[in-house]
C-alpha cells in the first residue's frame, strides 16, 4: 500500500511540475497579448525547454531499498514458516519428529538434560524460540523498511505542499493579470 501511495505521490508531483511549466508558458503568452513591447521581449528571451512526457505513461516509482529487501526476505521466510508452523502444516499422526528438532536447534546437545523426555521438551522449546526470533526479526525489518518509506513520503509531501502553494499563488496572479486585460 505504501508503494502504491508513493507512486501516486510521484505522479502528483510530476503533474504539479507540468502545471508550473504550463503556467510559465501562459504567462509568457499573456505578456505577448498585453503589449507589443512584451511580445518583443518574450521573442528575444530564451525559451524554457519544455519537459517531454514519458513515453510509457508515468515512470515507475521506486520504493526505498530497505523496504524492498525486507519485503523480499519476508516473502522468502514466509514459505519456510508455513512449512514449520504446527497450525499451518498437516500434522503427522506418527508422533513427534525428533530429527526435525535436532536439525533446527542450534544449541549443543550437552546443554540439555539427560532425560529423553526433558531433552525433547527443551529442544522443542528452543526450536519454538528460534522460530519466534526469526519471525520477530522479519517483523523488525519490515517495520524499519516501512519507517524509512514513510519518512521519504513525508519529505515528498512537504515538497509537494510547497510546490502547490507556490503554484496556487502564481495561478491567482495570472488570473488577476488575465482579468486586467
TrEMBL record:
Keywords: Coiled coil
PROSITE patterns in UniProt: T_SNARE (PS50192)
SUPFAM superfamilies reported for this sequence: SNARE fusion complex (SSF58038)
4Fe-4S in keyword set: no
One of the GO biological process terms: synaptic vesicle priming
Residue ranges of the region described as Disordered: 44-63
Name of this protein: Synaptosomal-associated protein 29
Gene that encodes it: Snap29
